[in-house]
Amino acid sequence: AAAAAAAAIMHDHRNSLASMASMGSVASLDSRDRSSLMGRTHSTQNVNSGSVWLPATVAGIVVLAIVSVILIIYARLTAPNVQPSRGDQVNPPFTSVPSPSGPGATQVTNMVVPTGGQPATGSFTPVGGTYDCLCVFDIDRTLTGKQGAATACFGNQEQIGTQDTAYSGGTMVLSTLSQSLQSTFCGSCYRAIVTAGVASGEGSAERSAILNVLGGYPATLSYTWSAAIPVTSSLVFGAMDGRKQETVRDVVNWFRSQRGVDLMDNKVHFFDDRDGNISPFAGTGFNAKQVSCASRDNIIGLCGATPDEVVAVTGVIPARKLALPAPSEHGKGCVATFFRDNTVAAVAAAAAAAAA
């Protein structure tokens, strides 16, 4: 009986051990299955995450590129047009000048006037053709009239907002010549400035207005201004009264050496309101004529030059010569209402005698 009981106990023990082993195998199997399942789940999540992240990144890069391009275009469209400073530049309010006409001029194609960026010296060939003559003008009381006297000078035009510092100063007044210079023979010539004044100084509105009167860059081949020594432009200020003929010579040389324009002396015409700036041209080969003869302010002009005074005369014509030409040669001489040794009555008598 004891042996049978022991055998039964051993049998139950073996069954318990077998049951525990079976449970361990199942647990181990479940663990492996769970690991495998979790691995498959993580892998699936990684694949799904990658498939979403890559297109989003590409889309972001494309959007940034588009925004960058838009910003660059906007910056260029809104940026100010700043030109590098090259001395005393002016920006005249014009874009082209009328084509020349008349004898002695070849066609010059209208061109946009530069507003900066080209040097005043160096090799240059005029675009579209050349002129064969040169008109050189004084400014004060030649291209301009007396400040504040516009109403006393028929046809003169006050330039509101533009200051003219010459003599007593005031608002700039354009003479009738300045308003119709293109209609004279000088409209078919190059044009230049030789003045004793400073045209109100560097960067002034007056300098811009004078360049505009002349016809801009195509007519002057310059848009910078130059002192009288040395001459580096066709727009010269500070020339000495009584010695302007020397400065005109330097301007002619500048056209030849820096712009490739060779001008004959007898094709160069100078106009000034002061008699003392005309007589010294004798013997130079240049032509010189006094203007603003009909309106005087002591020894200088009052209203400035008129278009009929700007004619292609030969030689030197000061006002005090009292030259009274025949009607067919109107404008060749210059009769003024003020002379050193003459009165208005004497001038009127001479004119009446000539007419008879």
Explain what you see.
The protein is α/β, with parallel strands linked by helices and 356 residues long. Helices cover 35% and strands 12% of the residues. Strand 9 and strand 10 form a beta hairpin. The model is unreliable at 25-29, 82-128, 321-333 and 335-351 (pLDDT under 50).
Short summary:
With 356 residues, the chain is an alpha/beta fold.
Indicate the topology:
Blueprint: H1 2-78, E1 134-137, E2 157-164, E3 170-174, H2 176-179, E4 190-194, H3 205-214, H4 217-220, E5 226-227, E6 235-237, H5 244-259, E7 268-272, E8 287-290, E9 296-297, E10 300-301, E11 316-317, H6 344-355
Parallel strand pairs: 1-4, 1-7, 4-6, 5-6, 7-8, 8-11
Antiparallel strand pairs: 2-3, 9-10
What labels would you give this structure?
356 residues, alpha/beta, seven-stranded parallel β-sheet, 11 strands
Instruction: Please outline the major beta sheet.
Output: 7 strands, parallel
**Individual helix count:** 6
Which residues form runs of ≥5 with pLDDT under 50? Answer: 25-29, 82-128, 321-333, 335-351
Order of helices and strands: HEEEHEHHEEHEEEEEH
Arithmetic mean of pLDDT: 75
Shape: elongated
